[in-house]
Write a structure and sequence with these properties.
heterodimer, A: mainly beta, four-stranded antiparallel beta sheet, B: mainly beta, five-stranded mixed beta sheet
């Protein structure tokens, strides 16, 4: 399967713990996005990478959140000192930079539950 | 990016056409209309996009009004697997912007047997 993959699919943690999610985009896709989705709402943009450069961060991305894409391939999203309000589905998407750049391919998401 | 308005929910009988409307009265000349859908517990899936001409692909057809202030996504023969939340998004095209998608709450389409 050459689609976007995310790991883990589900994560249950206790409040105050740190968690890290991984996203593997489609090979050679330059653009990588993280979104967050809470129950009953549409996904909300968190951050954008073009290759290894993080070019945009949403105000939703508080200082407890950090994202990296060290070699321009996979990306990680870390949440420190988790809070119950962080419970959500975290979605990763990728797209190529070029003519079809505006079609994003989403992974299955990581569902985070903070107890 | 322009804001869109969609009905919160719609029903459709299996095998019939599903017509999902979207209003985007503040769309500007360089903004495209995109449709994505999200089946329960999955990530969103791209369906189709267009600027001003009607578009068709293997999944759906997109009809954009002449003034571009509204559009309709048509699933010609809906199946139970088309039950999903459908998002209409308008945005500027091209690599000079980040390409982030601004999702609304979408339309929940329920296809019934």
């Amino acid at each position: 399967d050459t689609g976007v993959s995310q790991d883990p699919r589900h994560k249950i943690t206790k409040r105050g713990q740190n968690v890290t999610f991984r996203c593997d985009p489609i090979s050679e896709h330059n653009r990588l996005y993280w979104y967050r989705q809470t129950l009953g709402q549409g996904p909300e943009f968190l951050t954008y990478f073009q290759n290894e450069a993080q070019l945009e961060k949403s105000r939703l991305l508080s200082d407890r959140f950090s994202a990296e894409r060290p070699k321009g391939s996979f990306s990680t999203l870390e949440i420190q000192r988790t809070e119950q309000g962080d419970s959500a589905m975290y979605l990763c998407a990728s797209s190529p930079l070029g003519a079809s750049a505006d079609t994003q391919y989403f992974g299955p998401g990581t569902r985070l539950t903070v107890l | 990016d322009a804001k869109t308005t969609q009905p919160p929910s719609m029903d459709c009988a299996e095998g019939r056409a599903a017509n999902l409307p979207c209003n985007h009265s503040t769309i500007s000349g360089n903004e495209y209309v995109y449709w994505y859908r999200q089946i329960h517990s999955q990530g969103p899936q791209y369906i189709i996009h267009g600027l001003k001409n009607n578009e068709t692909n293997e999944m759906a057809s997109l009809i954009i009004t002449e003034d571009r202030k509204s559009s309709t996504l048509i699933l010609p023969h809906a199946t139970l697997r088309d039950t999903a939340v459908y998002y209409c998004i308008v945005r500027v095209h091209g690599s000079s912007n980040t390409g982030k998608l601004i999702f609304g709450q979408g339309t929940t389409l329920q296809v019934k047997p």
